[in-house]
Design goal:
Layout: H1 2-9, H2 16-27, H3 30-58, E1 67-68, E2 71-72, H4 75-92, H5 95-98, H6 101-115, H7 118-123, H8 134-152, H9 154-176
Antiparallel strand pairs: 1-2
Helix pairs in contact: 3-6, 3-8, 4-6
């Protein structure tokens, strides 16, 4: 009987996903949630595209490149289309649509598709598999690193900007002061 009573009093502990959700509700603003979804989407898309392109080139995937009228269709085109669609959603101004996680995910994915072929866009030559093509990887990771560092320490960067602005305004006032 004692065992039955203690079993009735015990509540099941929330699972890991429930705890993550609770933590997110407690600590993440809608903007931070969107940024996290964007970063995860960027990373997953970028990694997936790399695996797929290597699989196509290596012949271990059952499909090949996308072509239209005999011309190779690069994945940055999908990125541009995705960002154009996201832009339309943004300028429409519907708060619910703009703040939807799918918008953040699409933005991250579209950006990754473009960033992965940065070298091609820079030189307007298909250099994806050459040494120059490595620039795409480096730029993608550079973008990821720079934005990640910024987003991780936003208050620090804002404080740096505030101090710098104050210093510049002070120096400008001093230089423009009468009698100088």
């Amino acid at each position: 009987m004692g065992g039955d009573a203690s079993r009735q009093r015990r509540r099941p502990r929330p699972g890991l996903m429930a705890r993550w959700r609770q933590s997110a509700d407690q600590h993440l603003t809608p903007t931070k949630r969107s940024l996290i979804v964007t970063w995860i989407s960027f990373g997953v898309t970028w990694g997936s595209v790399r695996v797929i392109t290597h699989g196509i080139r290596g012949g271990w995937l059952p499909w090949g490149n996308i072509t239209a009228a005999g011309r190779h269709f690069h994945h940055y085109n999908f990125g541009i289309g995705t960002l154009a669609g996201i832009g339309l959603i943004a300028v429409r101004g519907d708060e619910r649509a703009v703040g939807h996680p799918a918008v953040a995910a699409a933005y991250g994915s579209g950006t990754a598709l473009i960033a992965d072929e940065f070298a091609l866009l820079l030189d307007l030559q298909d250099v994806y598999w050459t040494k120059q093509g490595r620039l795409s990887v480096d730029v993608s990771l550079g973008i990821l690193s720079a934005l990640g560092a910024y987003l991780t320490a936003v208050p620090f960067w804002h404080e740096c900007a505030r101090v710098t602005r104050r210093r510049l305004v002070s120096a400008t006032k001093r230089d423009l002061a009468p009698g100088r």
